[in-house]
Amino acid sequence: MSLKMSRRGFVKATAAATASTLLLGSQAATAFADDAAEGAKATSSDDVKIIPSACRQCYGRCALFGHVKDGRLTKIEGNPDLFSEGTLCGRAFAIPQELYNPLRVRYPQKRVGEKGSGQWKRITWEEAYQETADRYTEIGEKYGWHTIAHQYGTGRDMLQFQAINKLWLELGSTATFGVGNLCWVGSYFTSQRLYGDETQYTGWDGNNTDCILIWCRQERSRGYYDWLTVKRAQERGAKVICVDPRYTCTASKADLWLPIRPGSDMALVLAFINEIIHSDKCANDFARFYTNAPFFIDEEGTGYQLRESMIKEGGNEELYPAWDEAHDQLIFWSGDWQNKQGVGGPKAFQWLDAEGNIVADAKPALSGSREINGKTYRTSWDILVEHVTPWTIERAAEFCELPEDKIREAIQTYIDASPHACFCRGQKVEFSINTSGISQAFTIMMALAGNFDSKGGQNIGREPATGYDSFMFDVVPNKEGRMGKRRMETAKNIKKLSVCQNTGYQQILVADDATGELRETTQNSGGQVIYGQQGGFGAATTKAMAKGDPFQIHGYWQQTSEPILSIEGGHEIIEGFKNLDFFVNVDIYMTPSGELADIILPAAHPNEVDRVEWAHSGHGYPTSHTYLIRQPFHEPLGECKDDMDICFEFAKYMDVDMYWKDKYEFFDYMVKGPETLPPQLSCASFEEFRERISVTGVEMATVKQAPKYETGFMRKTSDFRPGFNTMYRGNKMGSVYRFPGTKTPDGKVIPAHPQSDNGKMEMWSEDLLLYGNGPLPLYIEPPITPLARPDLLEDFPYTLITGGRSHAFFHTEYRNSPWMREVHMFPTVDINPATAAEHGIAQDDWVWIETYVDKIRQRANLTEAIKPGMIHVEHDWWFPEREATDDLHGAIDSNCNVLFENNGPYDPAVGTDNYGGLCKIYKAEEGAPKNICMTEEDLKIFPPMSADAIASDDQADGVRQVTVKGGAK
């Protein structure tokens, strides 16, 4: 297929072209094409429009073509000429089933019965917007705008996310369930504060690597093309190491598999760092010249990095002392790149002597303590080395329940391949009360192995084709002073307006560095942050809605999200939703949460709207450097609207300045880029971009033949000085308990904190210290494990893990797709045959999985891919074939997140909770849950609607409910 196809110049082709066959095969694809094209058979027209677009059924954004005949999508096929190489999975082929699904909401709806009754009536958009504006204004003026929470789903459409977030931040909303803090924000938040960008998901260079370390990531769970990269690397001789408790597809293809004990990841990463530091491959010069490793630490005083202002009266807080090995003198790093303290200009990002002269040939010492004014100070490097040295391979083997020789082989393979070794991780590592800490440890591991911006290593700075990413949606107006008054006032008073006020101190089990023994300690939380904004996270927002702690949430706007299924404590979330004064849900379908709303606004399907597809998760070059068009196959059905358009339209009712006139003005800005952008990477407008379909940028490390931190391309500023982008540090908007002057439970008063925007990567992190994690990554035992809770083992003897990905679904989505349900009909629990035999459980038996909190039902899959004594349950299950009055479409029966408390502890920076624990398992004598699809025949309740059926169904009395007990209702 030619890449020159566009919406304006569709190529005529026949509908008989062969679809890609991954997962479902060409016969299945052709069969559905016949079903979906039923209404088109009556026409003699042979014209088929072939529209280049992208899939957003997951994060992969695979390039594809949609075949459209008489205004209906009849077939999907892969685009072989772009990064996804023509590969598609079943979720992409099922797009027509999504578009024409009988459960789609196609018109605005207002609830007319009790919450959860499933009783609705159609209203106009004007009525919906006006009532929503009136009710929210009433709540905001009566209780405060912070008592209106907002929520967005997965961030795979980041432009949509930006519009939602800006709308509600401008309105003064603070609370959110987060969602992203479960699966990405920990890495992103931490990486930003350590060096200014993110590489753990997006930066791996599998095309040139000698080793790929894949940590709890199922490479086939999204874009298949990632696995092609891995496969080709292996064919070149690269080694693949897989760390995962389960024997996944990735593990089966790896050269070395480490079946780690769930939750013990930190012990293994610390062992990696320890071995790297003590090897001849350690990147000492990088640590010396580009990190804060040589900086002295004020351990007995403020606890911060030492500044001249701390050792000299009238000293400068932008000067960081270190020792110069070359001249045997005290030197000072000037971080004053903005020249706020008089040591900027040519002196910024230079080593200065005591008189302020530049020492061009300074060699800051990594190691060694020095006495200054009667006090002894150590370098952060020495503190790091002391911290990791006890974390030996032997200790890691004990904590992780792995053979020592396998750990040694994995670490040595990674070290030997460095600086041409890359790392990528999965989201399961994020499901932890220590997600920020583990992300810090991964970053240190990659950096000290010499893999930062190396060929075959990690591309450490995301480089969208034009240099602009989705965050410009909010950054540009804020730079121009267009932040609204209410938003500014909310930020200034965040300590009393945040739902995180009462989450500040928690008991955790930390491993003592010297002995490895677990000891209980109090962790001082900094106040959780989502995307750098003090907002909230699942448990905190749930408590505010359900219990009024720390204040009552009265209003709620939810867009493309399902917290009942995705957040721990589903029963309490339902209670909270029932407490709300007013709730608006924006979605494609009727969902469990939506059934508790007051108004439903119908969202367009991703393939009914225009979008600039920007990569931000899971893929290396060229994918991570490519903008891709996602354009509609046809207009949205009924009165559905693009989520971005809904935000822009509702903003006018609320008198919110969105800055951008509409989404297209922002798209034009994104694809044009700055004036300095080479012409081949710039599009004059979105319409020109539509013609080009995609634009792939360059890797600056390749262009400049040097790492970006050496050439100034990591700075994200106009100074182009060597170093890192450290502007994200010191943003204490999100810090409730770490404001200077705050007293901690032990009586200590938090000292004043100068911002450490100094261009250095921080391995010893001042920001993470302020947020409560501690300056270096700690081993924290998850709260519900055999080591942490031996008192539970008699009743709940098995280790429970959750959240493994299924290629048939994306979190809560596609349970109403007959193809995806046929591929994966039931919620499935993996259990080792030996464990199953102990309880008389056979293959395909329905079983109860019970914790000390609750129990759920799933169907047993007996497999050697999981160890005896371990249980894995799937997440986010519900049954759209059940009625709203039938437990909100079966939202609880098989939902693993009800198995866990939401009382903490949490990650102190981003609020991630614990999603694993201890359980027992036994046969469910009553069998499967009632009223669910059990056979392929049952799935026929979800047929794609014909054009005539859609036209005749005006949804005047709500969305028709299809069930397996009596057909459509």
Taking the alpha carbons of the first and last residues, their distance comes to 43 Å
The pLDDT mean sits at 89
Shape: globular
The total count of strands amounts to 36
Structural class based on helices, strands and sheet pairing: alpha+beta
Radius of gyration: 28 Å
Physical arrangement of strands within the biggest beta sheet: 6-5-24-23-22-7
State the low-pLDDT regions, or none: 1-45, 732-737
- Number of helical segments? 31
Provide a descriptive summary of the structure in words.
This protein has 969 residues and is an alpha+beta fold. The chain is built from 31 helices and 36 strands. Helix 7 (224-236) links the parallel strand 8 and strand 9. Helix 5 packs parallel to helix 22, helix 9 (265-277) packs across helix 14 (404-417) and helix 19 packs across helix 21 (570-579). The protein is globular, with a radius of gyration of 28 Å. The two termini are 43 Å apart. Residues 1-45 and 732-737 have low confidence and may be disordered.
